[in-house]
Specification:
Elements: E1 2-7, H1 15-29, E2 33-38, H2 52-56, H3 64-73, E3 77-83, H4 91-103, E4 114-120, H5 125-137, E5 151-153, H6 157-162, H7 164-189
Parallel strand pairs: 1-2, 1-3, 3-4, 4-5
Helix pairs in contact: 1-7, 3-4
The structure holds flavin mononucleotide.
Flavin mononucleotide is lined by residues 9, 11, 14-16, 83-87, 119-124, 154-155.
């Protein structure tokens, strides 16, 4: 059982990493393998809306999005983490998730638990949370929560450790995710099968 944690910050070891790491430690100590995937500092293109992925099952831009989509197939859960930039998610993770969720096959994510976390010095955490939760919430993913909205307040990683409530929230989130992944695994072993996907009805708002 494996969880991929995405760090959408330009800082590899910044505050977002510190928050993700707190989750990772809990997942590991509950028997879940993990990998933190850093999006790096190179520009990540936004979606070109070209339709290539509809025909070819992958994004026309062969970069970290396609690479992650491949790894995601065998993952059991996901945590998407972002620093808050102007009361929103970072540009990098926004472009990354737009293209990832649009291009990857729906089986990559369906019925796999997901969480999002946001990290800010002071404001915009819930706005960024509301933005990022939209991706798993449209992909039939069970959303894992904690005892507060998943946020940490810090300008630098040292401050993240001082946000005791925020870090507790991360630890509880990690344990909850481990618990639900194990429940899903136990369900499969006892013969509970996932509901079959339905053919999508697409009704544009033209009348
Ligand atoms: C372009 C930019 C915009 C930011 N906007 C906000 C903001 O709207 N609210 C806030 O509290 N902090 C804001 N910050 C501060 C970061 O969210 C904060 O320093 C965070 O700890 C960075 O996490 P990281 O080290 O993982 O990148 C901003 C930082 C940058 C670089």
């Amino acid at each position: 059982m494996k969880v991929l944690l995405v760090n959408g910050s330009p800082h590899k070891n910044g505050s977002t990493f510190a928050a993700l790491r707190e989750i990772e430690v809990e997942l590991n100590s509950n028997g879940i393998e993990t990998s933190i995937v850093w999006l790096g500092t190179e520009a990540i293109s936004g979606c070109l809306a070209c339709g290539y992925c509809r025909r070819n099952g992958k994004c026309v831009k062969n970069d970290c999005v396609n690479e992650f989509a491949q790894r995601a197939k065998s993952a059991d859960g996901f945590v998407f983490g972002t620093p808050v930039h102007y009361a929103a998610a970072s540009g990098a993770i926004t472009s990354f998730l737009d293209r990832l969720f649009y291009s990857a096959s729906s089986d990559t994510f369906r019925h796999k638990p997901a969480a999002v976390i946001t990290v800010a010095r002071r404001g915009g955490t819930t706005a960024a949370y509301d933005q990022l939760i939209k991706y798993p919430a449209i992909a039939e993913m069970p959303i894992i929560s904690s005892h507060y909205w998943n946020m940490v307040h810090a300008a630098v990683p040292e401050e993240a450790k001082e946000d005791k409530e925020g870090m507790q929230c991360m630890r509880i989130l990690g344990r909850n995710m481990a618990y639900f992944i194990k429940c899903i695994e136990a369900g499969k072993k006892s013969g509970i099968s996932a509901p079959a996907a339905e053919q999508r009805e697409v009704t544009n708002f033209i009348r």
